[in-house]
Structures are given as structure tokens and as C-alpha cells.
Amino acid sequence: MRKISRVALIAVILFTATILGIVGLARFNSVTASEPPRVIVAARTADLYSAPSFDSRIVRSVAAGTTLDVAGHTSDGGWWQVVGDAGSLSYVRSSLVEPNSAAVALPVVGDPATPTATPTQTSTPTRTPTSTFTATPTATPAPLNSKNAALTVISGSWITSLTEGRGWRQRYVAAGGSYQISGRSADGGWYRISPDGRKFGWIAASRVRTNIEASIAPVLLDSGLAAPTVMPTATPTVAPSSPTPAATATQTMTPVAPSVTPPTAPTSTPTSSVITIIVITPAASPQATPIPAPAIAPPPLDPRNAAITVKVGTWITSLSARRGFRVKYVWPGSNYLVVARTADSKWYRISINPRRLGWISATRAHADPEVSVAPIQP
After folding, report:
1. How far apart are CA 314 and CA 333, in angstroms?
2. Would residue 264 count as lying in a domain?
3. Which of 201, 216, 231 is the last residue of a domain?
4. Backbone angles phi, psi at 15, to 5 degrees
5. Is residue 274 within 8 Å of residue 333, measured between CB atoms?
6. Number of domains in the chain
7. Is the pTM of this model over 0.85?
């Protein structure tokens, strides 16, 4: 009797567990099916663009951990289409976010439609009367406005208080950021911007891509004041001078005639004749000596601007060659300053924050040109 009771109790327990498992699985499937397609920002910051291109306008920037609703992705998988408030659409770079399972199944959006070729119908040529040609007026392009001068950072760099990398560092700007240009240096090698809208600094032209209005931005000094206008100096024109006799040479030739003594006439004295020859030497015309234009040397690489951009997520270790302990995991698209490198340049020592340093493999990051002059550390 006791054995039958135990068997009945075990059967009741198994039946109850099965029912609860089926209910829990159905609830989990309903929650998963109702989860909207979203992406989570994995980088420190991410910019939302009005179109799937870095050349488009930046709508806004979001911080790490922000959840964004998405409607699809581009055909190359490089951009997600974000659905904002009131149905507004924008795009975020795929390398900066992590999608959920519902977002992975979304269709392709945002690509321009492929034009369909229209068949051309061949018609029989018909004689038509010759029409009088009418010239179409050419539209005059709108003048450039220096207030629209802007740039996009193509390689992360520090903003400095003076040009040529001098002064103190104000702020680090990451690749992909767009800023308005308030001025430029006289040689066009540096642009003055304000990343936060309060402090102004300088960034090298080799680290950015500018629009056409940047060419007419005002020329400023390091202090931000307008550079003095240099008036062009008129070059005097040298008129060719007429040939001037340089020297006059006079040569006197006195021919000597033979004496003739006739038998009955007295001896005659010959008369001397003088011939004068004048030689005129033209003066050399002055020739202008061309003055070679001074060569503008590119600014030297500054190791203080050495930085990398993570291209594959990886762990930062306390020692190079994956030795030591793990310090922190870095995500693709993150930017960090390089403080040192190994002798073979296969490992970079980066500054995660002002108090923590670590090593990252060169195969896991994109390095700026300044990294090649970073100090060597064993």
C-alpha cells in the first residue's frame, strides 16, 4: 500500500512539473515574440545621421547603453535605420551598436532603388522643319557663405589651443564627428573649431574632411583674432633702354705716299689724309631674375597625438604579447591615446583612463600616423 502511494505521489509531482514547464515556455515565447527590434549602443558615444553616409547631417548623439528602435539595415550591413519620436528616421553605424534577435530578422532599407532600363523604340526618321536655336540661360550658382564652413573628423585627434600642435590639449575628438569651422590658418593647414560650443581650439587639416565653404573661412591668428590684411606690393616695370654707345674708339691712319722726283720738277710733299672709325657697342638689356617660391614643409608628426581606433573587440592586458592579467574589454569603434609601443610595433600601450593603462595588439586596431613616432617601451 505504501509503495502504491509513493508511485502516485511521484506521478503527481512529474505531472505538475510538466504543466509548469509548458506554461513557462509559452510565456517566454510570447515575451520573445513581442520584443520589438532594437539595438543597444556599445561604444562610448554614437552619432545618428540623416542618411547612411558620414557626409550627411548629424541628427544627434547618444551615449553608451542607449536603446534605439530600428526598422531595418542597409544591404551592406554597415548602417541601422533608427525610428525616433514621431516616426523620424535616422541612421547609426553598425559597428557601434549591438542588435537583438528581433532586429537581425529585419529587411533591407535605406538603399536607393535600382533604376530599371526602359527599352528604346526605334522609329522611322521623318523630315522635320529646322527650328531656330534658342540659348538657354545658365543659372548662376549661389555665392559661398563662410558661415556654412564645416568639417568631419576622419582620424581621431586632439584639439589644441594653438596651431602646429602647440599649447595645451583641450579635448579629444573621435572619427566621424562633424563641427563648424570658425576660422583657418594662413597656410590652410589648421582649422579652428569649438567641439562643446564654449572653448575654441585648432585641429590639423590632415585629420579632417572639409566642405567647399572651408576655403573661404576667415584667416585667424592663434589667439582667434583676424589676421592683418597684407596689401600687395606693386612691382615696378623696367622699360628697355635704347642702346647707348659704351665706348668710342678713334683710330687714325696716316698713309705714306712714295716720293716722286721728276727730272725737271721740284720734289713734291705728299698730303696726309685722316680716316676716323667709330665703333658702337650696344648695352646689355637688364633681365629679371626669377625668385623661387619657398617650399612649405608638412608639419612633423607629434607623438602626443598618437591614437588608435579599435576595429575588433578584444581584451586589454597588463603586459604585452597577451601576458599578465586582463584589464578591460574594449568595443569596436572605441578611440584611445597611445602612450608607448613595442620595438616591433606589434603591441600598443593605451590609456584607458587617466589612472589605467594596458596593452592591445596592433592587429585589433587602426593606428594613426603619429603612432609610428610613439616612444618604444619593452
Report:
1. 12
2. no
3. 216
4. -65, -45
5. no
6. 3
7. no
Domain boundary among 169, 185, 216: 216
User: 290 in a domain, yes or no?
Assistant: no
What is the per-residue DSSP string for 66-91?
-EEEEEEE-TTSSEEEEE-GGG-EEE
Neighbours of 156 (CB within 10 A): 22
User: Strand pairing of 190-193 and 201-204?
Assistant: antiparallel
Identify whether residues 43 and 95 lie together within a single domain: yes
- Domain span at residue 358? 303-373
What DSSP character marks residue 8? H
Q: Is residue 339 part of a domain?
A: yes
Answer whether residue 174 is part of any domain: yes
Residues 154 and 210 in one domain: yes
Domain of 54, CATH number, reads 2.30.30.40
Look at strands 208-210 and 150-153 and give their pairing. antiparallel
List the chain pLDDT tens, one digit each, 378 residues: 666 777 787 888 888 878 877 756 555 554 445 688 999 998 888 999 999 999 999 988 999 999 999 989 998 888 999 998 888 899 999 889 999 988 888 888 866 444 444 455 555 666 666 656 666 667 677 788 888 899 999 988 889 888 887 877 888 899 988 999 999 999 999 999 988 877 889 999 999 999 998 999 999 987 777 777 655 555 555 555 555 444 444 444 445 555 555 555 544 455 455 566 665 655 555 565 667 666 666 678 888 888 898 999 999 999 988 888 999 999 988 888 899 999 999 999 999 887 889 999 999 998 988 899 999 987
